[in-house]
């Protein structure tokens, strides 16, 4: 048994020295707080093992006694350093931090205050026994706390990080048990001493696997995440038509790679096109830049940078491929928009030709008939008949000119060729000017109820086309008085044109703004093309506004124009 204890002792010496070297190497490569605590923790443990070999069983010289006390003090400090490592990923409760710090300082002072440290096989005094009990309680509380915290936190991590944290947790528990077994006996060749030494070896191996697992083990642990990332990459290879579809394919596996609490894709315009999970309000995201100006916003746990650095590198690779996919979708959307615009322009052209051919046929045929009559029979007609033909010819020509102008208006509106250039104008002055032109000598029948001080920003051309159509229709299909009102509310200019006619038949209201739509009553009482209201609404919408119809009680019609504008209220 003594030979086994000796062999295990040398194995532990090598293992813990290697462990200390690994901790120092990690600090030199990372230079962060967590790595600093790892270096201090396992460098202290390596010093304890080395010093334990240097101090003789019965020290007498001053340096031997001093080294023995320092060795024991560092053994006291080890669980505190391990606890500080686990707390480096978050702010520990202040009371807990103060308590364990005070307990550690007190135990270190007690270590140096001990009058005598018995050698192996010597009888232990009551004072030293009490010290051992407090020492074990201190060690157990801190080690178990660290182990418990690492184990629980590891549940939410990806496989590699979870396994590393579980090994560190197991190692802390195994080392605590090894220390308890070693403290339970004074005979270095006893089975308890051998069991404690073997547990120390197991804990050293577990610490090494937790701090720096070999590559083959990382690959084996990472298989679930690798399958997910391969699936995500494969999904990016198939064609997606929207950025939102790309986000839906990659966000869930991307979050799983690093154990992120939430993850989102922000496109080159700064718009969030997809999100998985709910971002914590008190944590800033890690930004992974992608090609084309897009980026991944990743809300990882505080353990990810230390335990999942390779997974973060995998996420950057996936982010680069996602950026390429987003660029491809953006090009597809641009090409699709261009194709739709061409198809739309072609449809506008086709519609315009069809409308022009259909609507111009009647006036052109009529004009042609009148001209033929005047040409072949003009000498036989009486003067009164020739005058009637000339008057009818003038009316049909005016009708055709108005129809051509309206068709051109619709064509430009359909092709989005109307430019809206708002100007700041006095509303009342502009309304009165339009009314004078549209009322055609019947201005006295129009009542303009607009404040003299009301000013607003709007496009005068679009406003003229809308309001003149409404005033003309009020006289053509309604009855005076015609009332024009205007006001500015909630950053909108609201203009209403109201008449006292019979109004619009309820069954015709859904088709009121359709092109070439006219009710039976309007066809019987007045002329027109059925394009005026369609043009007026199209101009309103080109101005990002709207044109609405309301029935007036007891009778009449009201058309309400709403235009967005920066206004100065009267």
Describe this structure in words.
It is a single chain. By secondary structure, the chain is of the alpha+beta class. The protein folds into four domains: 2-221, Rhopdopsin 7-helix transmembrane proteins (Up-down Bundle); 223-329, GAF domain (Beta-Lactamase, 2-Layer Sandwich); 340-414, Signal transduction histidine kinase, dimerisation/phosphotransfer (DHp) domain (Helix Hairpins, Orthogonal Bundle), CATH 1.10.287; 423-568, Heat Shock Protein 90, CATH 3.30.565.10. It is built from 17 helices and twelve strands. It has helices at 2-30, 33-54, 62-87, 94-113, 126-154, 159-183, 191-211, 215-221, 223-237, 243-258, 304-307, 309-377, 383-414, 427-439, 460-477, 520-525, 532-542; strands at 262-266, 272-276, 286-289, 295-299, 423-426, 446-449, 455-458, 482-489, 492-499, 546-551, 557-564, 567-568. The chain has a five-stranded mixed β-sheet with strand order 6-8-9-11-10. It has a four-stranded antiparallel β-sheet with strand order 2-1-4-3. A hairpin with a 5-residue loop joins β10 (546-551) and β11 (557-564). 33% of the residues are buried.
- What is the CATH topology of the largest domain? Rhopdopsin 7-helix transmembrane proteins
**How many strands?**
12
Radius of gyration: 45 Å
The whole-number mean of residue pLDDT values reads 81
Q: Walk across the major sheet and give the strand order.
A: 6-8-9-11-10
In percent, how much strand structure appears in the residues?
5-15%
Order of helices and strands: HHHHHHHHHHEEEEHHHEHEEHEEHHEEE
- CATH-level-2 architecture of the largest domain: Up-down Bundle
Uncertain segments are none
- For the record, the count of structural domains works out to 4
Number of helices: 17
Cα-to-Cα separation, first versus last residue: 103 Å
Instruction: Give the structural class.
Output: alpha+beta
Biggest pleated-sheet summary: 5 strands, mixed
Shape: rod-shaped
Give the fraction of residues assigned to helices: 55-70%
CATH class of the largest domain: Mainly Alpha
């Amino acid at each position: 048994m003594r030979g086994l204890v000796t062999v295990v002792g040398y194995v532990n010496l090598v293992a813990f020295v290697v462990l200390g070297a690994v901790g120092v190497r990690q600090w030199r490569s990372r230079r962060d707080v967590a790595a600093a605590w790892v270096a201090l923790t396992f460098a202290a443990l390596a010093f304890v093992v080395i010093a334990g070999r240097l101090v003789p069983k019965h020290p007498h010289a001053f340096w031997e006694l001093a080294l023995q006390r320092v060795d024991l003090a560092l053994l006291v400090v080890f669980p505190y350093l391990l606890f500080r490592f686990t707390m480096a990923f978050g702010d520990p409760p202040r009371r807990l931090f103060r308590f364990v710090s005070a307990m550690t300082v007190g135990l270190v002072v007690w270590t140096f205050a001990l009058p005598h440290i018995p050698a192996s096989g010597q009888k232990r005094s009551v004072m030293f026994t009490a010290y051992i009990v407090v020492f074990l309680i201190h060690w157990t509380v801190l080690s178990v706390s660290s182990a418990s915290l690492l184990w629980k936190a590891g549940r939410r991590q990806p496989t590699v990080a979870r396994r590393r944290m579980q090994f560190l947790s197991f190692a802390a528990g195994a080392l605590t048990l090894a220390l308890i077994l070693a403290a339970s006996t004074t005979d270095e060749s006893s089975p308890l001493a051998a069991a404690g030494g073997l547990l120390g070896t197991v804990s050293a191996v577990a610490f090494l696997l937790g701090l720096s697992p070999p590559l083959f083990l990382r690959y084996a642990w990472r298989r679930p995440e690798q399958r997910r990332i391969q699936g995500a990459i494969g999904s990016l290879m198939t064609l997606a038509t929207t950025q939102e579809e790309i986000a839906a394919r990659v966000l869930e596996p991307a979050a799983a790679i690093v154990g992120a609490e939430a993850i989102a894709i922000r496109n080159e315009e700064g718009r969030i096109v997809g999100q998985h999970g709910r971002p914590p309000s008190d944590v800033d995201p890690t930004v992974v830049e992608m090609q084309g100006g897009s980026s991944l916003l990743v809300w990882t746990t505080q353990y990810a940078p230390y335990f999942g650095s390779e997974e973060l590198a995998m996420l950057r690779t996936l982010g680069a491929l996602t950026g390429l996919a987003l660029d491809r979708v953006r090009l597809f959307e641009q090409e699709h928009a261009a194709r739709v615009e061409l198809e739309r322009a072609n449809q506008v052209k086709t519609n315009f030709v069809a409308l022009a051919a259909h609507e111009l046929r009647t006036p052109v045929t009529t004009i042609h008939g009148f001209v033929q009559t005047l040409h072949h029979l003009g000498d036989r007609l009486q003067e009164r008949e020739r005058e009637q033909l000339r008057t009818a010819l003038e009316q049909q020509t005016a009708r055709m000119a108005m129809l051509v102008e309206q068709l051109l208006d619709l064509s430009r509106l359909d092709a989005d060729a109307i430019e809206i250039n708002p100007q700041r104008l006095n509303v009342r002055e502009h309304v009165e000017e339009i009314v004078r032109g549209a009322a055609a000598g019947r201005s006295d029948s129009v009542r303009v109820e607009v404040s003299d001080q009301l000013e607003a920003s709007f496009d005068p051309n679009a406003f003229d086309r809308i309001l003149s159509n409404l005033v003309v229709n009020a006289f053509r299909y309604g009855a005076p008085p015609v009332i024009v009102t205007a006001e500015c509310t909630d950053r909108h200019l609201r203009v209403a044109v109201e008449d006292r006619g019979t109004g619009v038949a309820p069954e015709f209201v859904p088709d009121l703004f359709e092109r070439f739509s006219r009710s039976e009553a309007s066809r019987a009482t007045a002329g027109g093309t059925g394009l005026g209201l369609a043009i007026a609404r199209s101009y309103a919408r080109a101005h990002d506004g709207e044109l609405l119809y309301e029935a007036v009680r007891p009778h009449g019609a009201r058309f309400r124009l709403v235009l967005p504008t920066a206004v100065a209220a009267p």
